[in-house]
């Protein structure tokens, strides 16, 4: 690497609006990024890492959030002093960025080809033939097969991993010197995550780019980083080579983040063989049919194929698999948010599949769901107390009693009573997930279905929510279906694990047995794809 940094951040300060929880989002930080280097910036939500990236790209939501001190030097040019037209010329051409959530970063009504060509045409207009060849080249470079089909696809028709690859193709379209990747693998399954990380590492090496990768996952850090900077409350508390940070962290905050990483080890748990079965799924099938205006061109996708499993009182069964494996579709069939095509779902012996809305109503309170994205599943116009009390009131509980119960549940999930008067947007991601859990518990269910409840949370917040789920399960003797793509999380919370692949359960065994001696090739592949395999065993003592 050259001694002259490609990017130098000097004494940067970014101010937040008046009334924010602290005056500065970023407080006097200095960093450098060299050519042909991957720098990982690690920290919890609110640590200032994404704000730093947005400042480099000139994407701060000014004037409410603005840089008030310092410099950001790209090859000696101060980006903070650059005019808007100069920043537009640099973005895409010299500075590329991969955003955290590709579905919100991609235009929903533009096809893939149009989104990539728009980036190219803004900076280096090409003829139609050359442009199409460039799009094909980029799609192949990021590992997307069949570019002729994908170029005409809409974003919602792509998987999470495919959307992320399209974002990478857009960021690389003009061969930038610096690539900023903001949580590029959050909420992706482990095999897709491994592919994206390998892709970033390969492209960085081929093009000799400097990569600034923002993450809260130390497994990702162990997989790709050359150097690491750890941020807390807007400040850098520790920085150094990756081997030093991972093996001998000096700052207590870094030590706490590493300690919170879930271990890929499952302790043997005695099976609750004498406990009654509360939920029994038998040969459940669900097929999605997509019609076409051309006769005979409709398609069918069998999302769930003859899935059977039993859940006992007080037991947690994990369902793991890649995106598209059918795990979330099966979960939604279980709670009857989707109607299965065939099969039986017995709740305390009663098959709820054939029940109509009125007959199903008394059973709904016995099985509740915690959703992956609590912000999307909480009504933004209602106060938290009303959200939690709404379910019991709909089933006949008097308002005063429902509101009292809401206050008790907020205390149970670690929030104070004042939270009841606030709105969902006033809480962090971890706090909103606690509110979603309180809402589900308000119905006093026997079965809790948790669909990726910690996938987008920081490791420390994730550890808190997992501990809370374990405490609530033990206190209330709940049964839980726990849907996740993170095998490290499954190892911590599940008594048994069912692995789904292409709509089928390919292996279902006690967690410790499955992790120690996986039998199916797909399960072995999943375990091998967990990021940071070379480092994780060192912290599992």
Rounded radius of gyration (Å): 24 Å
**Pairing-aware structural class of the strands and helices?**
alpha/beta
Helix percentage: 25-40%
Strand order of the largest sheet: 6-7-8-3-9-10
CATH superfamily membership of the domain at 310-340 and 348-366 and 445-541: P-loop containing nucleotide triphosphate hydrolases
Oligomer: single chain
Number of beta strands: 20
Outline the low-pLDDT stretches.
537-541
The main sheet comes to: 6 strands, mixed
What would you say the CATH architecture of the domain at 310-340 and 348-366 and 445-541 is? 3-Layer(aba) Sandwich
CATH class of the domain at 310-340 and 348-366 and 445-541: Alpha Beta
Number of helices: 21
Q: What is the end-to-end distance?
A: 35 Å
The average pLDDT is 87
CATH T-level fold name of the domain at 310-340 and 348-366 and 445-541: Rossmann fold
Q: Sum up the overall morphology in one term.
A: globular
Which range does the strand content fall in?
15-25%
What does this structure look like?
This protein has 541 residues and is an alpha/beta fold. Among the domains are: 310-340 and 348-366 and 445-541, Rossmann fold (3-Layer(aba) Sandwich), CATH 3.40.50; 372-443, no CATH class. The chain has 21 helices and 20 strands. The strands form 4 sheets. It has a 6-stranded mixed sheet, with helices on both faces.
């Amino acid at each position: 690497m050259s001694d002259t940094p490609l990017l130098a951040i000097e004494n940067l300060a970014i101010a937040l609006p008046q009334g924010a929880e602290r005056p500065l989002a970023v407080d006097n930080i200095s960093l450098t990024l060299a050519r042909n280097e991957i720098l990982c910036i690690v920290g919890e939500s609110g640590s200032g890492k994404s704000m730093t990236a947005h400042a480099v790209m000139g994407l701060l939501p000014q004037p409410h959030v603005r840089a008030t001190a310092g410099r950001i030097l790209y090859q000696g040019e101060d980006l903070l002093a650059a005019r808007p037209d100069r920043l537009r010329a640099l973005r895409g051409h010299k500075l590329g960025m991969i955003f955290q959530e590709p579905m919100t970063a991609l235009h929903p009504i533009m096809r893939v080809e149009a989104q990539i060509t728009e980036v190219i045409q803004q900076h280096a207009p090409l003829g139609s033939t050359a442009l199409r060849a460039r799009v094909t080249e980029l799609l192949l470079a990021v590992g997307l097969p069949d570019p002729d089909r994908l170029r005409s696809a809409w974003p919602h028709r792509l998987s999470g991993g495919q959307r992320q690859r399209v974002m990478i193709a857009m960021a690389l379209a003009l061969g930038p010197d610096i690539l900023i990747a903001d949580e590029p693998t959050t909420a992706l399954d482990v095999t897709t995550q491994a592919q994206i990380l390998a892709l970033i590492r390969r492209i960085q090496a081929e093009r000799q780019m400097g990569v600034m990768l923002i993450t809260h996952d130390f497994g990702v850090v162990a997989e790709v980083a050359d150097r690491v900077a750890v941020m807390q409350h807007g400040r850098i508390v520790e920085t150094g080579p990756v081997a030093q940070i991972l093996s001998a962290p000096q700052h207590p905050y870094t030590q706490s983040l590493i300690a919170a990483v879930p271990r890929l080890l499952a302790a043997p748990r005695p099976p609750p063989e004498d406990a009654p079965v509360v939920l029994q799924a038998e040969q459940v099938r669900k097929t999605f049919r997509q019609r076409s205006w051309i006769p005979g061109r409709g398609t069918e996708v069998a999302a769930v194929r003859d899935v059977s499993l039993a859940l006992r009182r007080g037991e947690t069964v994990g369902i793991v698999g890649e995106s598209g494996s059918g795990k979330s579709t099966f979960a939604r069939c279980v709670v009857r948010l989707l109607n299965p095509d065939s099969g039986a779902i017995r709740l305390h012996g009663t098959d709820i599949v054939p029940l109509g809305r009125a007959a199903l109503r008394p059973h709904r309170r016995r099985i509740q769901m915690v959703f992956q994205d609590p912000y999307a599943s909480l009504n933004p116009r209602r106060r938290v107390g009303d959200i939690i009390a709404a379910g019991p009131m709909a089933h006949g509980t008097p308002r005063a009693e429902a509101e009292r119960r809401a206050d008790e549940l907020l205390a149970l999930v670690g929030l104070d009573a004042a939270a009841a008067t606030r709105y969902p947007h006033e809480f962090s991601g971890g706090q909103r997930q606690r509110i979603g859990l309180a809402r589900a518990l308000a119905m006093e269910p026997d079965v809790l279905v948790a669909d990726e409840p910690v996938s987008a949370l920081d490791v420390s917040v994730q550890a808190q929510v997992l501990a809370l789920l374990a405490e609530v399960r033990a206190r209330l003797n709940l049964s839980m279906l726990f849907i996740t793509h993170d095998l490290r999380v499954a190892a911590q919370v599940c008594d048994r694990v069912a692995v789904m692949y292409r709509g089928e359960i390919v292996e279902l065994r006690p967690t410790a047995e499955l992790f120690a001696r996986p039998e199916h090739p797909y399960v072995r592949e999943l375990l091998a794809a967990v990021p940071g395999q070379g480092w994780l065993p060192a912290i599992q003592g």
